[in-house]
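Sanity check

After download, print the first record. It should look like this:
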Amino acid sequence: MTRTGAELHELAEVRVRELMTVAMRADPTGIGAALEDLAARGLVDGHTAAFLRRARRLTLAGAAALSAAVGTHRYRADADGTQRCLSCGTAEPCRTLRRTAEALTAYLGAQPYGIDRAEAWRRAETWLTRGGALRVAVVVEEFAEGYIARPIPYGQGEHERVVVVDRRTGGLTLWPVLPENVLAEQYRRYKLGLHLGLDPGSTPA
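Expected structure tokens:
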């Protein structure tokens, strides 16, 4: 299947974010303790232990560097609606994006892992209670493109919007309170608009 430049950019962006997320979730203290246990039992050699000890930082550094490159070579529609790389100016998939996507796919597989329901709940709950905001309960509903997180406030006050967490990227956007089937369709159109380089008018969380 031949992908457009915009599609390659999304693929690369998702995989880079995946690398960053996996590394950020890893517990450095747990890694150190596991290595000490393995070394004590003679189950790991020095070179392997040195790599594993640095793996989290190496992954974060690599993901940050890739994120900068992918961000520079993103695609936007020009005056006539043609999608072009903002760095290279080409309407075709630019060399940087193509090679980056090929390398990520070769090592990580063709499909991104995406996020599960529990991770969607964690992200939505963290955002909704940021800055010492009123503590809320969060109900998460699943649909094809992602997850709808509906806050249920404790005490007075009502939230007028819901948070949608994208299944592939983990990105958050704010939406009006709508029935699940209506919101799912609106979000599908929003994602299509992003692919086409349009401004769908959503509110990033």
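If your output differs, re-run the checksum step. Summary of this record's structure: The chain is about 50% helix and 15% strand.
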